[in-house]
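Sequence design from tokenized structure. All designs in this work follow the same two-part layout: the structure record, then the generated sequence. An example of the structure record is given first.
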């Protein structure tokens, strides 16, 4: 039976997908075979030698030491798209919050408490301080057209906005999911030059870190409104604060506020509520549990951030899987053959320099065979199922 450690509160509906016949889910497992986590940091955790996988019930994995996991052959999953609708709804909300000064107006109204019959007069006198534009006909620039960027693009288009999406790596399948009239560009300068609003939906990489910066903001219209519901580090703090001060940026809404941003005029700071809906938490937990169970029981990999996607139906009595440094599929197949193991099926793939192989056979795989395979340089994890 596999021991599953749960960090944070994981939806019971999700955990119900892990049959008690094969899995024991607990928040106190000392040497778990796998972990399901939401936002808890795992960077300081010691990993037991038997740890096989970590499933993140969410899209971001910056709370997981990916490099260390990869070195030890530990598969790390995430759940792209499971919380996309929840984040999309908050982004659309932020379009209105940054436009109409709704939050500022509501806070001001609280100061009128106790004015009695004068409230109505004071409202009429003070409302001009909170005038803001409509989004109809304005241009929304999206940096990233992934699991969240695409539904945001489609929703904004339905609201009557002009939408331009920057994504130099977008697939044909992803393009097909965009609403008619959404423009796709590989020119980031166009996003900054033509947009009235910019919403960031890119993963955090060395290339995207601080993509909203002073140099790019110089290309923008005065009064740009910026939304960041992806990662705090995608926006350069100093550049943003300067742009707010100068009027280059009229408003900034973020789900990842920093100490420097909180309380600044024009900043709407939201406490990371993007995926904080019961529906999103349940969807993420269900997907995480399903992917984890499929990996532990059958060795199939889907939505891993560090291993290639490799899946195959069982084609023999026994299944051998391997996580490798580099492409060792042929070397492993040769070693199996040299030890008299005939394969009934196989599948393999690569992701960057990490390989993953599945071999099915009707033969028994004894310790001598396992030792021969482990002796191959670059084998990081080997399992017989």
């Amino acid at each position: 039976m596999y021991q599953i450690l749960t960090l944070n509160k994981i939806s019971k509906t999700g955990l119900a997908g892990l049959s008690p016949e094969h899995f024991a889910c607990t928040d106190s497992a000392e040497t778990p075979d796998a972990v399901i986590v939401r936002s808890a940091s795992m960077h300081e955790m010691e990993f037991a030698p038997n740890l096989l996988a970590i499933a993140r019930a969410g899209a971001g994995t910056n709370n997981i030491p990916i490099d260390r996991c990869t070195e030890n052959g530990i598969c790390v999953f995430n759940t792209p798209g499971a919380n996309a609708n929840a984040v999309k709804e908050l982004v659309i909300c932020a379009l209105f919050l940054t436009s109409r000064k709704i939050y500022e107006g509501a806070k001001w109204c609280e100061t009128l408490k106790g004015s009695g019959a004068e409230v109505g007069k004071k409202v009429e006198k003070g409302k001009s301080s909170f005038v803001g534009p409509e989004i109809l006909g304005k241009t929304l620039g999206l940096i990233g057209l992934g699991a969240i960027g695409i539904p945001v693009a489609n929703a904004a288009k339905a609201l009557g906005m002009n939408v331009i999406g920057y994504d130099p790596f977008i697939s044909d399948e992803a393009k097909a999911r965009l609403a008619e009239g959404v423009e796709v560009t590989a020119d980031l300068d166009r996003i900054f030059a033509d947009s009235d609003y910019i919403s960031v939906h890119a993963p955090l990489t060395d290339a995207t870190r601080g993509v909203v910066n002073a140099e790019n903001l110089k290309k923008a219209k005065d009064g740009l409104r910026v939304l960041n519901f992806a990662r705090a580090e995608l926006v350069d703090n100093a550049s943003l604060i300067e742009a707010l001060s100068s009027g280059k940026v009229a408003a900034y809404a973020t789900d990842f506020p920093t100490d420097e941003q909180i309380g600044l005029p024009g900043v709407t700071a939201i406490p990371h509520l993007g995926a904080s809906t019961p529906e999103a938490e349940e969807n993420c937990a269900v997907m995480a549990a399903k992917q984890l169970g499929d990996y532990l029981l059958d060795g199939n990999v889907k939505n891993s951030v560090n291993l290639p996607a490799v899946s195959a139906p069982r084609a023999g009595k026994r299944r051998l899987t391997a996580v490798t440094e580099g492409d060792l599929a042929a070397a492993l197949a040769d070693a199996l053959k040299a030890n008299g193991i005939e394969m009934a099926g196989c599948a393999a793939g690569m992701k960057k320099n990490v390989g993953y192989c599945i071999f099915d056979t009707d033969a028994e795989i004894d310790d001598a065979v396992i030792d021969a395979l482990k002796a191959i340089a670059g084998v990081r994890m080997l399992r017989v199922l």
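The chain has a mean pLDDT of 96. We note this feature because it recurs in several other targets discussed in the main text.
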